[in-house]
Design brief:
The protein is mainly α. The chain has one domain. The chain is built from six helices and no strands. The protein is elongated and about 45 Å long.
C-alpha cells in the first residue's frame, strides 16, 4: 500500500469519526465508525488496483483490519449488548452478519489476486460491508448507545482497541 492510499484511508476514517460524533455517537461507536470508513477506503483502492502485487499487499492489510475489527467487536462490544434486553436482538443480528462477512472474506482469500474472479469477489464484499456498516451506524449504534449510556460507551473503547491489537498481532 502506498503512503497516499494509507493517508487517504486514515482521512476517510477521521472524517467518519467527526461525522459520527456530530450525529451523537461517542466512545467506541465513534471509533467503530472511523474504522469502518477507513476499511472502506482501503477496499475501494484494492478493488481498483490492477497490479496483482498491489492487490495482494492491500488485501493482506484489509484482511487484517476487517478480521481484527470484527473479532474485537465480537469479544468486547456485542457480549455487552447481549446483556441488555433493549439490545439483545442487535447482538444476535450482528452475529449472523459477522458469519456472512467471514464467508465473503474467505471467498476473497480463496481467489488468486491475478484472477478475473478476484475483483467481483471484492465488489461483493464491499456491497455487503456497506450494508452492514449502514445498519450498524444508523440503527445499532444509536440504539446501543441509548441503552448503555454515554459513560459505558466511552469505557468500552479501550477494551475494544486492546482486543483488536491482540487480534492484529495474531494475524501477523
Amino acid at each position: 500500500m502506498n503512503p497516499i492510499e494509507k493517508v487517504a484511508a486514515k482521512m476517510a476514517g477521521k472524517t467518519a469519526n467527526v461525522e459520527a460524533r456530530f450525529k451523537g455517537l461517542k466512545g467506541v461507536f465513534a471509533k467503530l465508525a472511523e474504522q469502518h470508513h477507513e476499511a472502506g477506503a482501503l477496499l475501494a483502492s484494492a478493488e481498483k488496483a490492477l497490479d496483482p502485487t498491489k492487490r495482494s499487499d492491500l488485501w493482506r492489510q484489509i484482511r487484517k483490519e476487517l478480521l481484527s475489527h470484527e473479532q474485537a467487536e465480537l469479544l468486547e462490544i456485542y457480549p455487552v449488548l447481549e446483556g441488555y434486553a433493549a439490545t439483545r436482538d442487535i447482538a444476535r443480528t450482528h452475529a449472523e452478519q459477522a458469519g456472512e462477512l467471514d464467508e465473503l472474506i474467505r471467498l476473497v482469500d480463496s481467489i488468486a489476486v491475478q484472477s478475473v474472479a478476484w475483483r467481483p469477489a471484492v465488489q461483493g464484499l464491499i456491497v455487503r460491508i456497506e450494508a452492514h456498516v449502514a445498519e450498524e451506524e444508523q440503527q445499532f449504534f444509536p440504539q446501543a448507545q441509548h441503552a448503555l449510556g454515554d459513560e459505558r460507551v466511552k469505557k468500552l473503547e479501550q477494551p475494544f482497541l486492546t482486543a483488536q491489537a491482540r487480534m492484529k498481532a495474531r494475524l501477523g
